[in-house]
Design goal:
Elements: H1 43-65, E1 71-74, E2 80-83, H2 85-91, H3 93-101, E3 109-112, H4 118-130, H5 135-151, H6 155-166, H7 175-184, H8 188-200, H9 202-205, H10 209-217, H11 219-264, H12 289-301, H13 311-326, H14 338-345, H15 350-367
Parallel strand pairs: 1-3
Antiparallel strand pairs: 1-2
Helix pairs in contact: 1-4, 2-3, 4-5, 5-6, 7-8, 10-11, 11-15, 13-14
The structure holds zinc ion (3 copies).
Residues 323-324, 327, 330, 333, 335, 338 line the site of one zinc ion.
Length: 382
C-alpha cells in the first residue's frame, strides 16, 4: 500500500484531476493523487503513471468487489462493509489493534464503527485502500472523515480533510463547532485558522447558535477566546502606536535633512547669506523643505524669540537642538547654533541627556541610515 504514503501537501486533489497527459487512459483507469515523478523527457512519468493508475484501480476494485474479504465492519443503522484485515491493519494502527482483539467465526472478524454515517465509513475505508475519494463525497462527509482520520490515526486523510475545510468550508455559523472539533481531533492548523476567523468576526460569531452551545458546554473555551480577543486588540493598538511613532521620527528626520539643505544650499527664498538666488530654481526634492522654510522665516522675525516663547519658535529651537545632536561635524556645519548647542549639552542633566539620546537613536533607527549624507550613527557618540 505505497499509495497512502507521501501524499504531497500541494497535490491534495482528487483522483480525476490528476489524470496523466500522455497517453489517454481507458475510462476505469484513474490516476492516483500521488505526486508525479518523472525524467525530463516524460518517459519515466508515463511508465510510473500507468503503473500507479493501474495499482489505484486495482485497490479500488478490490474494495468495491470485496474479493476474499475477511472483515465485516458494522456501521450505524445496521449497515455493514466488507474489507480485508491486512489492508485495514496496514493503514491504521488503531484498526490493527481492534482486529487483534476482534472476535469472529473462523478467520472472519467483525468490528464496529459507530457515531458517523455508514457512507462516511465507506468513504473512509475506500481511502484506506486506494487513497482516493470523490469530491462530492469529501464535501459531504469531511467532518466525519476528519473524526475518523483522527480516531483511527490516518494522518494523510486528516491532512486532506483540513485542506478541504480551509477551502471555503468555514463560515460564521459553523466555525465555532469546527474549532472545537479541530481541538478534539488535534488539528493545530485548522484550530489556528478557526481561531483567527473567530477573533476577526467575534461580534457576528458570538451571536451564533454554535457560540451559545459552546458557552454552555465549554465555558473555559469561551473565556479563553474572549481573552485572546483582548490580547489581540492590545497588540493591534501597540502596532498602531508604533507605526505612529515611526511616522513622527521619520518626519523629524526629514525636517533635519531639509534644515541642513536650507542652511547649506539655500532653497527658494531662504538660505545662507553668501548665496545668490536665481529666479528659475530647480524644484526642491526635500518634502519637509516648504514647511521648514515658513518656520525659519517666522523664527527670524518673531518678537517672542526666546525658549519657552511662541510654539513655532519653540519648535524651531527643538529642531536646532536636535540637529546639533545628530550633527557629527559642527566645525563645518552651517546650521545656526549647532556648535552652541553642542557646548550646552555638556551642562545638561542626565535625565535630559537620556531623553535626547533615545530620541536621536529612534530617529536614526527609523530611517536606517548607515551611510546617510547628513547624519550617521556617529552622531550618537558626540
Ligand atoms: Zn528645498
Ligand atoms: Zn515665534
Ligand atoms: Zn550641525
Amino acid at each position: 500500500m505505497g499509495k497512502l504514503e507521501n501524499i504531497p501537501e500541494n497535490s491534495l486533489k482528487f483522483s480525476e484531476q490528476r489524470s496523466p497527459v500522455p497517453p489517454p487512459l481507458p475510462d476505469p483507469l484513474r490516476a492516483s493523487n500521488k505526486k508525479k515523478r518523472s525524467g525530463k523527457d516524460g518517459s519515466g512519468l508515463r511508465g510510473y503513471n500507468l503503473a500507479s493508475t493501474r495499482a489505484t484501480y486495482m485497490w479500488d476494485r478490490l474494495f468495491d468487489e470485496g474479493y476474499r474479504t475477511d472483515v465485516t465492519v458494522n456501521t450505524d443503522n445496521g449497515g455493514s462493509i466488507f474489507a480485508h484485515a491486512s489492508i485495514l491493519g496496514m493503514t491504521s494502527p488503531v484498526l490493527r489493534g481492534m482486529l487483534t482483539q476482534a472476535k469472529g467465526r473462523g478467520r472472519r472478524r467483525t468490528i464496529s464503527i459507530h457515531g458517523v454515517s455508514h457512507d462516511a465509513v465507506r468513504v473512509f475505508i475506500r481511502f484506506l485502500y486506494s487513497a482516493c475519494y470523490e469530491e462530492d463525497e469529501m464535501k459531504e462527509f469531511v467532518l466525519h472523515l476528519l473524526v475518523l482520520s483522527h480516531v483511527f490515526a490516518v494522518p494523510q486523510l486528516k491532512q486532506i480533510c483540513v485542506w478541504h475545510l480551509e477551502q471555503g468550508f468555514l463560515n460564521a455559523e459553523n466555525v465555532v463547532d469546527i474549532f472545537q472539533l479541530a481541538l478534539l481531533c488535534d488539528a493545530p492548523r485548522l484550530s489556528l485558522i478557526c481561531h483567527r476567523m473567530i477573533l476577526k468576526n467575534l461580534k457576528e460569531i458570538s451571536a451564533t447558535e454554535g457560540w451559545e452551545v459552546m458557552k454552555k458546554s465549554h465555558p473555559v473555551l469561551e473565556k479563553q477566546l474572549l481573552e485572546s480577543k483582548i490580547n489581540e486588540d492590545n497588540r493591534q493598538k501597540q502596532r498602531i502606536k508604533k507605526s505612529n511613532e515611526r511616522k513622527i521620527y521619520l518626519q523629524l528626520y526629514e525636517a533635519m535633512e531639509a534644515l541642513v539643505h536650507i542652511c547649506r544650499d539655500g532653497c527658494r527664498t531662504i538660505g545662507p547669506h553668501d548665496k545668490e538666488f536665481s529666479e528659475n530654481q530647480p524644484p526642491c526634492n526635500y518634502s519637509a523643505c516648504k514647511g521648514l522654510e515658513l518656520l525659519v522665516r517666522h523664527f527670524a522675525s518673531c518678537k517672542l524669540r526666546i525658549p519657552g516663547g511662541c510654539s513655532h519658535c519653540r519648535r524651531m529651537w527643538q529642531l536646532l537642538e536636535l540637529h546639533s545632536r545628530l550633527c557629527s561635524d559642527s566645525d563645518t556645519c552651517r546650521v545656526p547654533l549647532c556648535r552652541n548647542f553642542k557646548e550646552r549639552t555638556v551642562k545638561q542633566s542626565k535625565k535630559d541627556e537620556m531623553r535626547w539620546r533615545i530620541l536621536v537613536k529612534n530617529i536614526l533607527r527609523t530611517k536606517r541610515i548607515g551611510g546617510s549624507p547628513f547624519f550617521s550613527s556617529d552622531a550618537l557618540t558626540c
